[in-house]
Amino acid sequence: MTAVTSPVDQPNRALVQSLPPAVTLPHTSTLGSAAAAAKEPRRKFVVFALDAQHYCVDIMSVREIRMAQTITYIPGAPKLICGVINLRGSIVPVCDLRARFGGRETVLLPTQRIVITMIGGRAIGLLVDDVLDILAIPEIEISPVPQADGDNDRPLFRGLISHNGTMLILVETENLIDPLANVPAN
Predict the structure, then answer these.
(1) How many CB atoms lie within 10 A of CB 73?
(2) For a Cys-Cys bond, which of 85, 90, 95, 110 suits 186, CB 3.0-4.6 Å?
């Protein structure tokens, strides 16, 4: 039996010879990791600024974001506590994150924000320069913080996130509470 072929079934040999050889992508292509990141569950973070550095906290710990308001100084409070605010009848301590992270004490400006968080079952305000964004990031994109000083018992930072050319430092809110333990609760 003879096979009958039509001109359509025959490949154009000149066309086939002019095509470049197939390119195979390595198994670890960025296309694959982007696809994996797209399937990965995303966590949401509130992004804020202190000076030129960007930080973020898990949105699940944030209750609200407020404009800076009058903060009442409490004598004898730890250096990193700016004071307290009255939040609808509840007294909420405000943590100066700049001082907590080893910088200078913050001078309160009307452009700043207070991020109200729940830390250890208590409302704590975090004084920041500005709130920039809310981002949904796949867990796979959170890198560990390099250990620099060997003291990793209660790290202040949980990870690093590179987003659109900016490095975000993920704050471990639960580890901010220890120095706040002697501040009166609500």
Answers:
(1) 9
(2) 90
State how far the alpha carbon of 175 is from the alpha carbons of 47, 98, 151, 155, 181, in Å: 18, 15, 13, 7, 11
* Integer angstrom CA distances of residue 121 from 117, 164, 173: 9, 34, 12
The Cα–Cα gap between 148 and 155 comes to 11
Enclosing domain of residue 103 = 40-180
Average pLDDT over residues 125-129: 96
pLDDT per residue as tens digits for the range 129-178: 999 999 999 999 999 988 765 556 668 888 999 999 999 999 999 888 76
Please state, in angstroms and rounded to a whole number, the distance separating the CA atoms of residues 63 and 121. Answer: 12
- Domain of 156: which CATH number? 2.40.50.180
Beta strands in the chain (DSSP E): 42-50, 53-58, 62-67, 81-87, 90-96, 113-119, 122-128, 130-138, 142-143, 157-163, 166-171
Q: Do the beta carbons of residue 158 and residue 172 sit within 8 Å?
A: yes
